[in-house]
Design a protein that fits this description.
Chain lengths: 472, 106
């Protein structure tokens, strides 16, 4: 049976990067291990300083005061809303060719990759730029001023529900990104965006704007987590500069639903890369050889579901479960080594989960930098002709993407360096959290070995994926 | 500038050209898509032959060729851009990757 492969694993756009050469992958792996021991050794000698490390209040700089002026922020929100509406309009009324319509590039490259980059490097920009929230706020203001009606039905949010709605919505999004074969069709994408927006608005109207944003707006949570890694944060109403990753250490621990959310997020980022490896291709091919599997796939095709959809959906279900299992196992092993009977595995897991985020951020940056640099260039001609009607608003409609923009060596060294740095930040954070959870430095040191081992494994997987030739 | 498909019987371009070959049977490659490695700056003469009429597309370099049964076609690629580029059958929702061209920097 010939396997028909969709144009790419990730939502949209091809990457033409060469795999990491073997010598660089070995060097990166070696550096990871060596630096892990260095960080551990440093902790043995010194007491760790408090988490309240240096904070620089940025309001002292005139440029910053100008940038965070309410008028500037309102203007930025307006631009974001305009781009959002333009994107939807292109999807519904523009040419349906994915390469000539604004929607696929805007959603999968500029927003999901580019904006995520920004949030990881600058701060949680979605919190004030989200068009979903802006439109809701403006609608609520109009309702209040003109109709005298509050845009809130006052439904109390069930505490037990936690962030599970966001988990469900993010799982749906991950399926759309990684499995849905229609995710490069402009109209279908636009419909999905509208569907999600309506759900968000319903949630905000029912339970309250901020309640839904914290529990049910999946992207507020995702970009919030990325933003915690970034050096800019808002504390006590002031814009401050803090060390990289400091925001991840801010809370004592996350809720169980957020634990699952973070692990789901991490696993889907890695899964995206894994799907493009020859190993994944071989695993899928061998699955077809299993009789029960191929019988099920045949049955599914009778129902109109393609074989690729079935296999990838199943993999998308299994991958996060493996991640969660591995993380809980490491948490359990930590507690065993520390001999702390009072804590449950779940509590420890909830305390440590955010320390994995630097590794995921580093992987996301290094894996997708090339996509942003090549497929991201599509935005140049698309801004001149978002609907594909043959316009040329800014004179750039004839722009040809330059795929040789960045030399392979720059991508290779950059990717490896970023991954190693992300790993070191994660190991450092694991130490800080361990001290917080286990109290004494000695207990913290011994107990962290399982978490460190997990992190080393996670980083190795990230490096390994980068060293694989892209297939499919 | 990047290259043009031409019948294989035409003389290969002057100067040193790296010659690659690919035989397509039944719309795909029997042994799975092979990877050809060349160095940046090389001129590649890629001879494609097949038993069916297929359109092939070299992504990245954006070169296309129409294969007719029994008539080999040569894709001439000036490998000036480094990267890993799939050569696939063209068109429709399902593309089959036939081979990969990896161009390594010097």
């Amino acid at each position: 049976m010939a396997l028909s492969a969709p144009a790419s694993a990730h939502g949209f756009g091809r990457r033409f990067v060469l795999p990491l050469p073997l010598w660089l992958w070995v060097t990166g792996a070696g550096a990871t291990i060596v630096l892990t021991f260095v960080v551990v050794a440093l902790f043995v000698r010194e007491r760790v300083g408090g988490v309240r490390a240096a904070r620089l209040d940025l309001a002292r700089f005139a440029l910053v005061r100008w940038l965070i002026h309410p008028a500037v922020i309102a203007g930025a929100r307006a631009v974001a809303v305009f781009m959002f509406l333009l994107t939807l309009a292109s999807g519904f009324w523009g040419e349906q060719d994915p390469f000539r319509n604004l929607v696929p590039t805007m959603v999968w490259v500029v927003w999901w990759v580019g904006f995520a980059f920004l949030c990881a490097l600058v701060g949680d920009l979605w919190a004030f730029l989200s068009p979903i929230t802006s439109l809701f706020d403006w609608g609520a203001a109009i309702a209040r001023c003109i109709f005298g009606v509050r845009a809130w039905f006052g439904v109390p949010y069930p505490k037990r529900l936690g962030a599970w709605p966001a988990v469900a919505l993010f799982a749906g999004f991950a399926w759309c990104e990684l499995v849905w074969s229609g995710n490069d069709e402009p109209r279908a994408l636009a419909q999905a965006i509208v569907f999600y927006t309506l759900i968000a608005w319903a949630g905000m109207a029912a339970f309250g704007r901020d309640v839904w944003l914290a529990r049910g707006e999946a992207f507020a949570i995702v970009f919030g987590i990325f933003g915690r890694f970034a050096p800019l944060a808002v504390e006590d109403g002031r814009l401050v500069l803090c060390p990289l990753g400091a925001g991840l250490l801010a809370d004592a621990r996350v809720s169980p639903s957020l634990l699952v959310f973070v692990l789901l997020m991490l696993s889907t980022v890695t899964f995206d890369g894994f799907l493009e490896t020859p190993l994944a291709e071989r695993v899928v091919a061998s699955l077809y050889g299993v009789e029960s599997v191929s019988a099920f796939i045949f049955q599914a095709s009778e129902w109109g579901i393609s074989d690729v959809t079935v296999v990838r959906s199943a993999a998308l279900l299994i991958f996060p479960l493996l991640f969660i299992g591995a993380f809980l196992a490491a948490s359990w092993a930590m507690l065993k080594l520390a001999g702390v009977g009072a804590l449950s595995t779940l509590t420890a897991a909830c305390a440590f989960v955010l320390t994995l985020v630097p590794i995921a951020v580093a992987y996301h940056l290094s894996h997708y930098a090339s996509l942003l640099l090549t497929a991201g260039q599509f935005i140049v001609p698309l801004l001149s002709d978002p609907f594909g009607f043959g316009w040329d608003l800014f004179g750039t409609a004839d722009y040809k993407v330059n795929i040789g923009l960045v030399r392979p060596y720059a991508l290779w060294y950059g990717a490896t360096a970023i991954i190693v740095i992300g790993h070191v930040v994660a190991v450092y954070q694991a130490h800080v959290v361990a001290l917080r959870v286990f109290g004494s430095a000695r207990e913290a040191l011994i107990s962290q070995m399982p978490m460190i081992a997990l992190m080393v494994g996670y980083t190795m997987i990230s490096l390994w994926i980068l060293a694989q030739p892209i297939v499919g | 500038m990047l290259g043009v498909p031409r019948p294989a019987r035409a003389p290969a371009p002057a100067g040193e050209a790296r010659r690659l070959e690919l035989a397509i049977a039944g719309g795909k490659i029997a042994a799975g898509a092979p990877t050809h490695r060349v160095t940046q700056g090389e001129l590649v003469a890629w001879v494609l032959s097949g038993d069916a009429a297929v359109d092939v597309h070299l992504h990245g370099y954006d070169l296309e060729a129409k294969l007719a049964p029994g008539t080999p076609v040569m894709l001439v690629v000036d490998a000036s851009i480094a990267g890993r580029f799939p050569l696939s059958t063209h068109g429709g929702r399902s593309e089959t990757t036939l081979a990969y061209l990896e161009v390594y920097p010097r």
